[in-house]
Design a protein that fits this description.
The structure holds 2 protein chains of 2 kinds.
Chain A: H1 3-19, H2 28-31, E1 34-43, E2 49-57, E3 62-71, E4 79-88, E5 93-94, E6 99-114, E7 137-150, E8 157-169, H3 170-177, H4 187-190, E9 192-201
Antiparallel strand pairs in A: 1-2, 1-9, 2-3, 3-4, 4-6, 5-6, 6-7, 7-8, 8-9
Chain B: H1 2-9, H2 11-23, H3 45-55, E1 64-69, H4 76-88, E2 94-97, H5 107-117, E3 124-126, H6 137-144, E4 150-154, E5 157-161, H7 178-185, E6 192-196, H8 208-219, E7 224-229, E8 237-238, E9 246-249, E10 257-264, E11 267-274
Parallel strand pairs in B: 1-2, 2-3, 5-6, 6-7, 7-9
Antiparallel strand pairs in B: 1-10, 4-5, 8-9, 10-11
Classes of the chains: A alpha+beta, B alpha/beta.
Chain lengths: 204, 275
């Protein structure tokens, strides 16, 4: 398939999400007003435990967040990880008055890892381009699913989501794609999991 | 209230799903690509393989057969083929991987290489390469494989595995550890010495201030037979410093061929084998 056609399909896929009706405000302008979301995550390549703050559109379709993750020594640290995350949430399926599901969420995050032997740049001892990748900044892509529970109207929270996420990063993808490694590594090999809770604050 | 009760009846389903998640093996929950352990990664592989090798010494003949390769970094498909080929050849004593086991020195690089090498029927020994020392690789290497400098004797040959990746230490004058090497050469028992390291002394990534003392040390020992190196990626073979020490470099794993060395009483027979 030519790249242009692939791009078109991808764009259509992204736009398709906007056509799906959802349970939030039907006024398009209001849907875009930001709300605050707090997150707490286990694993997912951003730390053993990660806390985050997101700004989300009211329909929760677009979210961007800043996260801090910590990995203790026992779990292969000590690591401090700062992440910038963006998420696109095209579909929402209402199960009943209390529960709804967001079956497919996609997005990307950039992680800067801090720790012993991890420098943001290569030492000047190396000639330029000696190593082609950045030493401790990784780019990840992910796909996730979420189940959400609405809070009672009196609550500060609008709803709480439990999500399960699978991600891979630039170096794993490159390992998979070069030298026909895809005949030896599987996609499952390069994908890693995380899960967490998101607390959507009530707006208005 | 009735509308609220239905989701709660679904709780067994959610609990089941949650249990299913936990059943996914723990190492699939990644904390960071830079984590040094995942709870199940192997440890002390060089020592384990060395024990395996030394156990074969008594019942073998005095011919030493080495499968010599290097730079397996990100060559998973080729390494798989190499292992299959190695398992089809009888009579090999050990496989030597001359460094750059990993490309990015991430735990996963090391694990993916190990998953393939552990299918070998013969023992394998690794030396550390410059790529293995980036990021947190030094710690991962030492925990998974063992010390960066180590030696052992087998069939009358003393092997000196050592770190020559000077550039990774900002050419601090201590890598390679010439004092350690010199101490090893004082051993009077072995008939021959074989050096195993990643960066050969004539390369720009070797500490330039140590090149002369290093190659002179090897040349000063009549029993020093051979230096096995990686890093160059194409097989090199020369008496580089015009002394009695032969410098051999391995093909990188992605070259889809390895060197098979047969050593009989200090004479070296070399064969290239494609896979």
């Amino acid at each position: 398939m030519p790249i242009k056609v692939k791009k078109l399909f991808f764009l259509l896929f992204l736009l398709s999400g906007m056509l799906v009706p959802n349970g939030y405000s039907t006024e398009p302008r209001k849907q875009l007003l930001p709300v605050s979301v707090f997150s707490l995550q286990y694993a997912g390549s951003t730390g053993f435990m990660t806390g985050g703050y997101f700004r989300s559109t009211r329909n929760a379709k677009l979210q961007t967040g800043l996260l801090y993750g910590y990995t203790p020594e026992y779990f292969g640290g000590v690591l401090h990880t700062l992440s910038l995350k963006a998420l696109y949430n095209p579909f929402k399926i209402k199960l009943n008055e209390a529960f709804f599901v967001e079956p497919v969420q996609v997005g990307a995050f950039l992680c800067q890892n801090f720790g012993e032997d991890l420098d943001p740049t290569w030492s000047s001892t190396y000639p330029k381009g000696y190593y082609w990748w950045t030493p401790s900044l990784r780019g990840h892509v992910f796909i996730s699913s979420a189940v959400s529970l609405r809070s009672p109207n009196s609550s500060l929270l609008d709803h709480t989501s439990f999500y399960f996420e699978a991600n891979t990063n630039d170096l794993y993808l490159s390992s998979y794609l070069v030298r026909k490694n895809y005949s030896s590594l599987s996609l499952y090999d390069i994908v890693f999991f995380g899960m967490g809770l998101k607390f959507y604050l009530r707006h208005e | 209230m009735k509308s609220q009760s239905r989701p709660f009846r679904l709780y067994p389903v959610y609990c089941g799903l949650f249990a299913l998640l936990l059943l996914c093996s723990c190492e699939k929950f990644e904390y960071s690509p830079y984590q040094t352990t995942n709870g199940t990664r192997p440890a002390n592989l060089n020592a384990t393989n060395l024990n395996k090798l030394l156990a074969t010494e008594a019942n073998g003949n005095d011919t030493l057969t080495i499968l010599f390769t290097g730079d397996s970094q990100r060559s998973y498909r080729s390494l798989h083929a190499l292992v299959a080929k190695a398992n089809s050849i009888a009579g090999i004593d050990l496989l030597i991987l001359a460094g750059d086991i990993s490309d990015f020195a991430l735990l996963q690089d090391f694990l993916w290489i190990h998953e393939r090498l552990e299918k070998l029927k013969i023992p394998y020994l690794c030396v550390i390469g410059n790529h293995d020392l980036t990021a947190r690789g030094a710690q991962i290497y030492e925990e998974m494989f063992g010390p960066k400098d180590f030696s052992f004797s087998y069939k009358g040959y003393k092997f000196l595995f050592h770190d020559t990746n000077g550039r990774e230490y900002d050419f601090n004058g201590h890598v390679p550890d010439v004092n350690w090497l010199s101490g090893q050469l004082n051993d009077t028992t072995p008939q021959w010495f074989i050096g195993v390291s990643h960066v050969p002394p004539y390369d720009m990534d070797f500490d330039r201030n140590l090149e002369i003392p290093y190659k002179n040390l090897f040349a000063s020992e009549p029993r020093f037979l051979l230096s096995l190196n990686g890093h160059i990626h194409t097989g090199g073979d020369s008496f580089y410093y015009h002394d009695h020490v032969r410098y051999l470099t391995s093909y990188s794993v992605d070259h889809d061929q390895f060197v098979l060395l047969k050593l009989i009483n200090g004479s070296i027979n070399k064969k290239l084998i494609a896979y």
